[in-house]
Structures are given as structure tokens and as C-alpha cells.
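It would be a great kindness if you could assist me with a short task in structural biology. Thank you for your consideration; the sequence and its C-alpha cells are set out here.
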Amino acid sequence: MANVKRANFRQRDDGFEVSVPSGTLNVGGGSLAPMDLMLVAVGGCTALDVLSILKKMRYDFHMEVSVEGKRRDEHPKIYTDITIIYEIKGKVPEKALLRAVSLSLNKYCSATAMVIGKTRIHYVVKLNGKEVKRGEKKHLES
């Protein structure tokens, strides 16, 4: 059985108030733009995965994630490339960190799986200020 989610849009001036199962936000009209939300979805999805995996392993760390998107000039102005930069500081073994990122990008993160057919997803992993890996997510097999 499919897990169905719903977003309800209520017009507010030149934008919308949007209600989703996890809360409410504003879209357009000087608030979040839909394509910005795509970056938030991709970054939030993988960041939460990596956070959860590393916390379950009981590591002591602080993480910041940045997401950069490059859009094409013609309509529809989709993202052609998205780069996710994971910056972790703390007592986390490099192998465990890379495993967490790999699990997120290749198994758990639904947002990256949704966009991978049209968008190249690049990633950079930094541990305590040092880059430890750079790569590109591959297409998922159906």
C-alpha cells in the first residue's frame, strides 16, 4: 500500500500558506521559492539520514551541510547539478562517516533518488576541516 502525503495550498496575497503533515510554511510572495525548497529537500533528507546513522553509532560530533544548485538557463529551469557538502567535526572515524554518507545517498534519501534522473548529484565530505572524499551519486537501478 502506498504511503500517501498531501500538501494543501491556501492563497495569501501573492503566495501560499502550505500545510503538510509535518507543519506549515509559506511559499512564494517573498517567502521560500519552490526551487529553493528542492535544495532544502535534498539537503534536509540526506543530512537527517547521516545525523541519525552517526548518532546511532554513538559518535560525538557536530555537522553542517551545505547544498549548492546549478540551474539551466532555459525553461523549465531545472537543477542540472547539485553539490552536497558535508562538514563534520568531532570524534568520528572516517570509515564510519563515509559509510553513513553512502547509506544516505544510495539507500535511504528519497529526495536524491527523486531528482537523480535529471540532476547530477555531487558530494564532498570533510572531517575536521580536511576533505576526505569527493564523488558523484550514481543512478539508482529500478
